[in-house]
Amino acid sequence: MEKVPMTAGGFVALEVELKQRQQVDRQRIIQAIAEARALGDLSENAEYHAAKEAQSLNEGRIMELESLIGRADIIDISKLGGDTIKFGATVKLIDDDTEEEKLYQIVGEPESDVKSGKVSIGSPIARALIGKKVGDSVHVNTPGGGKSYEVVSVAFR
To answer: Between β-strands 101-107 and 118-120, what pairing exists: parallel, antiparallel or unpaired?
Structure first.
């Protein structure tokens, strides 16, 4: 089985989601199914079919979370350092075209969230950044076209 790299914070978030889905969501869905069954004919019961679909989606996500947690390779970012960009690094970039500042942390796939500045290790920007240092220029091919950045700082926090 392939290990999945992630930060300690990402691992905790997965555990919290799993607990929520197993202990809260599962019980709520079971209750919704029971209530829908009480309404009678199941063949034309939209509430029943919706609850069964929600159950299927929830159980599928539970299995996915259990797999990710079981394959987690937790990397302690506080023990990392240096001036070269690698997994866990928080990188400040300046867009060469707009002079806009961007701040990204390179994290594992399950914990990535671009809106909060966490990019997956497998994303185009992370792949372009790995191995670079402060002062380096980086060209990233994105679905929206090429972008160029200058690395301003690298930190591990």
So the answer is: parallel
**What confidence tens digit (pLDDT) does each residue in 102-111 have?**
999 999 999 9
Nearest one of 60, 3, 79 to 11, comparing CA atoms: 3
Which of these ranges, 20-34, 39-53, 80-94, has the smallest mean pLDDT?
39-53
For the chain, give the secondary structure using H, E and C. Answer: CCCEEEEHHHHHHHHHHHHHHHHHHHHHHHHHHHHHHHCCCCCCCHHHHHHHHHHHHHHHHHHHHHHHHHCEEEECHHHCCCCECCCCCEEEEEECCCCCEEEEEEECHHHCEHHHCEEECCCHHHHHHCCCECCCEEEEEECCEEEEEEEEEEECC
Length of the chain measured in residues? 157
Query: Looking up tokens 């599962």, which residue turns up?
Result: 26
**pTM confidence score:** 0.83
| Residue 144 dihedral angles phi and psi, to the nearest 5° | -90, 5
> Do the beta carbons of residue 128 and residue 140 sit within 8 Å?
yes
CB 75 within 8 A of CB 88: yes
